[in-house]
Amino acid sequence: MVAVAATFSFLTSPLLIKPRISSTFTATVLRSGKLRRFGRSRSFCCFPMASLKSKELPENNPGLCTQSDDATSNYFLQQTMLRVKDPKVSLDFYSRVLGMKLLKRLDFSEMKFSLYFLGYEDLALAPADPVERTIWTFSKKSTIELTHNWGTESDPEFKGHHNGNSEPRGFGHIGITVDDVYKACERFENLGVEFVKKPDAGKMKGIAFIKDPDGYWIEIFDLNLVGEVTRTAS
């Protein structure tokens, strides 16, 4: 077996090494994909650069446009909208359980509905002027828009909203990145959050799914494990 001595400062190498390994650590990478460290061998994510790119090549993705129109150069994904039954319950979940901040609330009295925009932003940077705050909110990426049609929270005939995960299936889930999926899920469990899947359940270990108060699914993962969990699909 031929070994190649390496330090982890070689981003130009034909092998792509996980970035979480220290850039000053000297190691020996074996062609078998094992990392020998201080005389011990362990599994290591080590793939040719080309293999990471191959599935994303245009020829492997019919319909993919690789030359975007210049008109779309400043587009970005700003919000995902979820309809909720009771804003009091939903705001508690998204702020207390998931740690989001209420960026902006809009009330449309004539049409009898309210919008709540939440995200992971620094509220100290939000403008005091209400119109400017709306513009500021809409300039942020990846926010959640909770839509409440007035009266659903107290309507005994209201049956709830479809979450997309039963027939006819459509919308699936949103995803939240956490520091440690196991610690996060332990906290969620202590808070009484309903689980669809715990981290060690099923075939995909290290990824969890929880439900919000309206039954929408939320995927929970961390950056330390998601690469390993999806390795065979990469």
TrEMBL record:
Coiled coil: none annotated. Zn(2+) binds at Q79, E145, H173, E219. Residues 76-223 form the VOC domain. Belongs to the glyoxalase I family. The active site is at E219. Binds 1 zinc ion per subunit. In the homodimer, two zinc ions are bound between subunits. Its cofactor is Zn(2+). Catalyzes the conversion of hemimercaptal, formed from methylglyoxal and glutathione, to S-lactoylglutathione. CDD domains: GlxI_Zn. This is Lactoylglutathione lyase. Substrate binds at Q79, R83, N149, R169, H173, K203, M204. It catalyses: (R)-S-lactoylglutathione = methylglyoxal + glutathione. Keywords: Lyase, Metal-binding, Zinc. PANTHER family: LACTOYLGLUTATHIONE LYASE (PTHR10374:SF30), LACTOYLGLUTATHIONE LYASE GLYOXALASE I (PTHR10374). It comes from the Eukaryota. InterPro entries: Glyas_Bleomycin-R_OHBP_Dase, Glyas_Fos-R_dOase_dom, Glyoxalase_1, Glyoxalase_1_CS, VOC_core. It comes from Zostera marina (Eelgrass). PROSITE patterns: GLYOXALASE_I_1 (PS00934), GLYOXALASE_I_2 (PS00935), VOC (PS51819). Pathway: Secondary metabolite metabolism; methylglyoxal degradation; (R)-lactate from methylglyoxal: step 1/2. GO terms for molecular function: lactoylglutathione lyase activity; metal ion binding. Its EC number is 4.4.1.5.
